[in-house]
Request: fold
Amino acid sequence: MANVWSSNVDFKNGELHLSGIPARTLARDFGTPSFFLDEADFRVRARAWGSALTDSFGEKAGTVYYAAKAFICVEVARWVADSGIGLDVCTGGELAVALAAGFSPSKIELHGNNKSVAEINRAVQVGVRTIVIDSLFEIDRVAQVAKDQGRRQRILLRLTPGIEAHTHESIATAHEDVKFGFSIASGAAWAAILAVRQHPSLELCGFHSHIGSQIQQMEAFGIAAEILISFLGKYRDEFSEQLPELDLGGGYGIAYLPGDDDLPANVVLPALYDAVQSSCQRHGLELPQVSIEPGRAIVGPAMFTLYEVGTTKEVILESGATRNYVSVDGGMSDNIRPSLYGAEYTAAIANRFSAALSRSTRVVGKHCETGDIVIRDIDLAEDVAPGDLLAVPATGAYGRSMASNYNHVPRPPIVAVLNGKGRVILRRETEADLLALDV
Reply:
């Protein structure tokens, strides 16, 4: 299962170690459930995406924007800054985290399909580099805020290229029937361009597209690039100038299960360059500055969740077969993805080696929902018992960031581990935190 763990995880005599620290020590020192983040692995991945963009596109390399929605906290924002890449934020809260970390607004991009006037005002005020506009209402809002502040705000228009990426419906974002962007096919995108050109306080720099998440083939990205570049050509033909930028979003898949494919930076960027270059040649355009937005691809594989087993239970199925239910001390409150859209994970006993036979197992959480399932179907050793530790890899993206307090369960901490030492960078919530909002 080496492909699903971060680079500094290994198993010694059956026990998981992160940067040399045994799982039992991690559980003793930080408790369970906890998210453990391999800091060195995160930093290497972040730098790799930045380097691959530069190596592939040269002087036409735009910015690698780390997608904060995957996971962000103040310390991680500092790592992103240290890695020399930018940050993509979608809300005022994510922007606040970035600013608290001292992140340069000149390397921040603001997204979101329903930005409030307050969020737009803050972004323009602090000097966010680019705002990605998603609706006609936002064109007027951003223009008015920029005008009121005496600024000319750089913007991109988020366009819907109308392609079906091979991913779950909930995370596919580029077909026509979605809430995001301006449709090219319907004419909405062209109407948006005309609307932007009515506002001197807006500087239209180019187009943006994000076709979905957890995509594991490059073909869809090449198709999206062709459609957007064709649209750049239409703009050039109409207005006798070429827009200088293209942001092709993120969505690059990672391995969640043994044998899964992923899309690493050294595969994505050369292929993307070839697609963009050939499309530009077909349409007689200069190569634009190209930016991308990996999030999951950086943080996803760098983190795992460590649980303690509380109970096990044998269940007899209608077929007469049996399944072992293993209940852990977390669940849908720290990883909603399996319940939300059927995401699949693997797991390993983290505290010991087991020579027992494996059996059909379902790993479930502690919440009052039948759908509170961490792993629907996995073969685990039949001797899994209360007190054992289970580690679930590749939980860095959308685990803690989508976590909730369902059943009034405090959210787990994020523990960064580097060079044999662990430190809490986002503390575990307490019952006092849960009660603090009561009036």
Summary: The chain has twelve helices and 21 strands.
